[in-house]
C-alpha cells in the first residue's frame, strides 16, 4: 500500500490557508497528501465565479465577513470554525478525480453513524448536503477538497450565500439544502471527526504518516500569497499579480 503524508499545519489567516492548500499541489508530491484544516468566518468562491451572483455582499460587509477566491472550481462555500476542510492531493493523472475523496468522506461519515450518499457535487444525508466537493488539476497531480459541516448551522450558511439565481449559468453554484452533523443529532467533537477522516483515508489509500509542512510547501505558499492570496484583485475577479 502507498505511504502518504498527513500534513499537520495550522494557519489562522484564511488567505494563508488557501495559499497552503494550493501549495500542496504545486510542489508535485510523489504520494498522496492529506491535510485537515479550519478557517475563521469567511466566504470562499470558486475560481471562475462572480461574487455578485454568489454572495450576499451587503451582509458580509455589515458583519465583517471577508470574501476570498480559491484556485479550484466548484461552488461557493461558507467557512467558519464549525466546518472541517479536507484536502486530498493525489499525484499523477486521474480519470475520476473526486471519486477517492468521495469514498473517504463517505466512509468517515458512515463511521460517525450516518448513512451518506454521493449526489450532485457533494455528499448528502437524506436530502441535505453535508459535504461539498471541488477539484483542481495540474500536469503532475490533482487536488480534491471537501467541506464537512460539523457544527455550522444551515441558517448561518444561508445568511451570506445567495439563493439560486433565476438565470442559471454554467459556473453558478448548485444550491442545495444543507445540514451539519450537529443538526443530524451528532456532536462527536472535532478530534473524533478528524480521526474518522484519517482512518477512512488510510483504509482506502494506504498509510498516512504525520509530518509538518515541508520547506518547499512553505516557500510555495509564500509565493502564492504574493501573486494571488494577498492581492485584492485575485479575490475580486480572479486576476493575479505577476511573479
TrEMBL record:
Alphabetized GO MF terms: ligase activity
PROSITE patterns reported for this sequence: BPL_LPL_CATALYTIC
Coiled-coil regions, chain positions: none
Statement: the UniProt record of this protein carries the keyword Ligase: yes
InterPro entries given in the database record: aa-tRNA-synth_II/BPL/LPL, BPL_LPL_catalytic, LipoylTrfase_LipoateP_Ligase
Biochemical pathway: Protein modification; protein lipoylation via exogenous pathway; protein N(6)-(lipoyl)lysine from lipoate: step 2/2
Pfam families per record: LplA-B_cat
Sequence ranges assigned to domain BPL/LPL catalytic in this UniProt record: 28-209
CDD domains associated with the record: LplA (cd16443)
Superkingdom in the source lineage: Bacteria
Keywords, sorted A to Z: Ligase
The name this protein goes by in its record: Lipoate--protein ligase family protein
Amino acid at each position: 500500500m502507498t505511504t502518504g503524508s498527513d500534513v499537520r499545519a495550522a494557519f489562522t489567516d484564511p488567505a494563508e490557508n488557501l495559499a497552503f492548500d494550493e501549495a500542496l499541489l504545486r510542489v508535485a508530491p510523489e504520494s498522496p497528501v492529506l491535510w485537515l484544516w479550519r478557517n475563521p468566518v469567511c466566504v470562499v468562491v470558486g475560481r471562475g465565479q462572480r461574487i455578485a451572483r454568489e454572495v450576499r455582499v451587503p451582509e458580509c460587509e455589515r458583519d465583517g465577513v471577508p470574501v476570498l477566491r480559491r484556485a479550484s472550481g466548484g461552488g461557493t462555500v461558507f467557512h467558519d470554525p464549525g466546518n472541517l476542510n479536507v484536502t486530498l492531493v493525489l499525484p499523477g493523472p486521474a480519470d475520476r478525480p473526486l471519486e477517492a475523496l468521495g469514498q473517504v468522506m463517505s466512509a468517515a461519515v458512515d463511521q460517525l453513524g450516518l448513512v451518506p450518499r454521493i449526489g450532485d457535487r457533494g455528499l448528502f444525508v437524506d436530502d441535505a448536503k453535508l459535504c461539498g466537493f471541488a477539484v483542481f488539476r495540474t500536469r503532475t497531480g490533482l487536488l480534491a477538497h471537501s467541506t464537512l459541516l460539523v457544527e455550522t448551522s444551515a441558517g448561518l450558511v444561508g445568511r451570506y450565500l445567495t439563493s439560486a439565481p433565476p438565470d442559471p449559468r454554467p459556473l453558478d453554484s448548485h444550491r442545495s439544502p444543507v445540514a451539519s452533523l450537529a443538526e443530524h443529532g451528532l456532536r462527536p467533537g472535532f478530534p473524533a471527526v478528524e480521526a474518522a477522516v484519517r482512518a477512512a483515508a488510510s483504509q482506502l489509500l494506504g498509510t498516512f504518516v504525520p509530518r509538518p509542512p515541508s520547506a518547499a510547501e512553505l516557500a510555495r505558499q509564500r509565493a502564492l500569497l504574493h501573486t494571488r492570496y494577498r492581492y485584492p484583485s485575485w479575490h475580486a475577479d480572479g486576476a493575479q499579480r505577476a511573479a
